[in-house]
Amino acid sequence: MAHALNSTVATPSVVARLRGLAENARTSWDLYKEYKRTYEELDALTDRDLADIGIRRCDIADLARTHVYGA
Predict the structure, then answer these.
(1) pLDDT in tens, 36-63
(2) Once rounded to an integer, what is the mean pLDDT over residues 7-33?
(3) How far is CA 50 from CA 44, 46, 63, in A?
(4) What is the DSSP letter of 59?
(5) Cα dihedral sign for 14, 18, 23, 27?
(6) Residues 55, 38 contacting (CB under 8 angstroms)
(7) Which of 27, 34, 39, 50 could form a disulfide with 55 if both were Cys (CB 3.0 to 4.6 A apart)?
């Protein structure tokens, strides 16, 4: 016995896909701005201030990235 499946999977319209693309771009831009702000704030600290909180200057980029984007 043969079975036929009629699948009507709705594909997103072009407008919906463009909206999704724009939203992803906006989210990425916001995350980048947060990374840059975090990096600049840590970079503005003196070496002594960084040592007081246990951060080496070479670790600033990694710390900012982990803070914004996760592990």
Answers:
(1) 999 999 999 999 999 999 999 999 999 9
(2) 91
(3) 10, 6, 12
(4) G
(5) positive
(6) no
(7) 50
C-alpha–C-alpha distance, residues 42 and 71, integer Å: 18
Q: What is the largest CA-CA distance in the chain?
A: 79
| Confidence band of 3 (pLDDT split at 50, 70, 90) | confident
First to last CA, the chain: 53
- Report whether 31 contacts 65 (CB < 8 A): no
Torsion of CA 54, 57, 58, 64, to 10 degrees: 80
State the Cα–Cα distance between residues 52 and 46, nearest whole angstrom. Answer: 10
